[in-house]
Amino acid sequence: MRILKANWYPPLNEELTRLFGSTVDFDIDPISTDPDYRLSNDRAASADGLINCSATHLLPADLDAFSNVKIVVREGVGYDNLDLEGWGARGIPVCNVPDYGTTEVADHALALMLALTRGTNTYDRLLNSDPVNGWSFSRAPLVRRLRGATFGVVGLGRIGLAAARRAAAFDMRVVFYDPHLSNGVELSTGYERVHSLNELMAISDILSLHAPRSAETIGMINAAALAAAKPGLILINTARGPIVDLDALYDAMRDGRVAGAGLDVLPAEPADRSQKLIAAWAANEPWIEGRLVLSPHAAFYSPDAMNDMQRKAVECILTYVNEGRLTNCVNREYLKTPLR
User: Of the listed 38, 269, 325, 340, which one is catalytic?
Assistant: First the structure.
């Protein structure tokens, strides 16, 4: 069986070859910085299974070029860069790997919160630049007690729930907003539930985003939502960059309603310094000092998570092709032909 891994990021995971041996012939197509790059028709047609390794880049060929592909897998959780309807019209299931980095992303969300509320990033930077005068506990602007503070969660799925459990371990009050969950989830989790984003904004000291990118969520955290925020809010985003309107966040941080933000994901990646918020952060403008922490879309990452992600993507393909059993399908509603 030939599996094409498109938009692949180094390093090569040698464990895949060890695990699957001669069962699978991997064709690795590294991610390209050339926007006009296209995969050859011959290579596309030779694939039995297709994996898109990138969370943001589109496949480098038309769907019809993959004439022998039986299943497509997004090597990760998000799948908004795959044409679910187009593949479904061709009778091809699209799947994802939803369970590879749940704990890493939840850990990272809490780490961003702690970097701001315990001042660790600020202390480190000040001590590095001036070990004597930087030796001060009062220079980090957002240090606060977490016990009793309200941790708001947008999206109580796998990762949102994992983040909520961690926040609860800090003796925080956990409140969530998720219109897609049925009644009773609040009873089984013990967390409080609200039924509007503005209601959650108004009571949260920390707001952690764990929603997928969709037409519903793009720009969800906009000027109107931020205007409803409890003064002093800290915003954490380890989900998808376009969920947050960065210009609106800039304005809310400048006027002081939003105290700080920890962003692992951005609308444009790498960070676009033409954005007002990113420009202010890059220039170390005094007003933003200690109030914004960025990381490079790294919340998912650990060596173990990478191994799990790559292995589970291949297992998803093999399970379907060899056994007829489909796991984690995300385009069932579009499939033209019944699944096996």
Answer: 269
